[in-house]
Amino acid sequence: MRSLSAILPDGANTYRGDPWVPRFYLFFCLVVTFRSCVHVFRQDGGAASIAGIDINVEGGRNIVAIFAQWGLEQLLLAGLAWLALVRYRGLIPLILLINLLDNIGRILVGRSKPLKIDRPPPGAYAQVIILPFLALALWRSLPERD
């Protein structure tokens, strides 16, 4: 059985979960950081070029602005993930939980308020594919109970 108390560890510097989880998390951090930078720095925020949203409409600049702001929020989450990975490894379970909840939330919001586009953006598939991996990594990042 895993110890849920490791979500908020006594020592933030000590990671006690499975050794493969930080390697998985490194890959995850790279993907999230790249995705975030695309939304922040790409001229259209990825709205047209990736998500297929027509931004040549009234309010199109607002769509781009929202995508860039969303990218900044993602970049802040990525920063927390990097901080946990590089300096405070004991926080990996907590940050994985936040990432898992973020992913589930985006799936639920996307289903309740779907985009009106020709094809789903790559992130729509990726968030469903990564979900079980995040859940498994979270579970395996928790140490065995003593």
Descriptive keywords:
146 residues, 62% helix, mainly alpha
Mean pLDDT across every amino acid position: 91
- Tell me the number of structural domains: 1
Q: How many helices in DSSP terms?
A: 4
What is the makeup of the main sheet?
Answer: none
Could you tell me the strand content as a percent range? Answer: under 5%
Sequence of secondary-structure elements: HHHH
Output the radius of gyration. 17 Å
State the separation between the terminal residues, measured CA to CA: 9 Å
How are the secondary structure elements laid out?
Layout: H1 20-41, H2 60-86, H3 92-112, H4 122-141
Helix pairs in contact: 1-2, 1-4, 2-3, 3-4
Task: Report a brief summary of the structure.
By secondary structure, the protein is mainly α.
